[in-house]
Amino acid sequence: MSLIRKYSICIITLAVISNCSFHSSQYELAKSLLTSSDIKRPQSNWITEWAALNIDIFAINHKDQIFFASYDDHLIQFKDNQVVNVQGFFGDDAIVKIDLNDYRLRYTYNNKLIGEHKCYPWNDSSSLDVKINFKEQICFDQRKDYNYKNRIYTNTEDQIIALEFKIHPNYPSIIIRFKKYDQEIFNS
After folding, report:
1. Cα separation, 83 vs 18, whole angstroms
2. pTM as predicted
3. Which residues pair with 177 in a beta bridge?
4. Is 170 in a helix, a strand, or coil?
5. DSSP 3-state percent helix, strand, coil across the chain (nearest 5)
6. pLDDT tens for residues 65-99?
7. Residues 164, 153: Cα–Cα separation, whole Å
8. Which of 187, 118, 108 is nearest to 148 (CA)?
9. From residue 90, how far is each of 53, 86, 117 by CA, in Å?
């Protein structure tokens, strides 16, 4: 068989195959289920408020820590009364780690030291609403002559209902709260 004849047969075969269509009602049903925009995802019951962003998140308890995560790759790790890891908030896949050692918070951005603050030990307080208690830690950025408060809010059953923490020395504190509680409760 000549080379031209082989090419002609291949071209004709491809033309015939490309004009065929495949139709299956089972395939269409499966496709519609997988691509449907009506898929019900679990609804978050926590929210973060930070730098003009409000992001719905989930609280995931794991051993002695809580992970707060969103569908959009935001992640906050809370362990031993401290936010220790923050990802997805700085737009460039940066990881901010916060280490507490000897009442000093060390902030690192992609493993580069960006701040070190002195903190006092935690003290217990209560809000005007007797159903809410909070622990408060006052920290100082000595280079900028600036202080801020990290807070852990709890309900009467000693369950965490909100957190307020500095997650980066150059940005405002983040508030992470259970949606059931109105933001106004925490303004004290």
Report:
1. 57
2. 0.75
3. 47, 162
4. coil
5. 15, 45, 40
6. 999 999 999 999 999 999 999 999 997 789 999 99
7. 8
8. 118
9. 12, 9, 21
